[in-house]
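Subject: Universal stress protein structure
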Amino acid sequence: MSQKILVPIDFSDFNQTVIAKALDYAKLTQAEIFLIHVATLDLGVIVSETGFTYLPELEDTALKEEAEQLEILQKEIQGKGFNCQAIIKQGIPADIILEEANSISADLIVIGSLGHNTLYNMLIGSVASEVIKNSKIPLLVIPKAK
């Protein structure tokens, strides 16, 4: 049975570094890569003077674009000879990442951390720090170079 590596993706430039580290590990263990992107719940919401407006067509377009971006990454990884699956879900990123890691029985989560300071994490919270705090699955945290 091959190992499974879950790699959360947010489409920042830093993702390439995180994916490269995940592939290094996958090469050693013949692991399958599972890319996951969690779209936020407020995708179809615009804020104007009149308050919040929900536009489902805006959400559909954004989800479609994100799914297409994820598929491009999936094909790049498959082109390098790795088994790769892509998962896109909507919700609270840390919760969905942990749920999906359990659902696929991941052996490892490779996640990027932007390394914000403690005050930022206290006020805003970071997906990586939430995953780190709550994961029962081993993690490889890739810090973003300063």
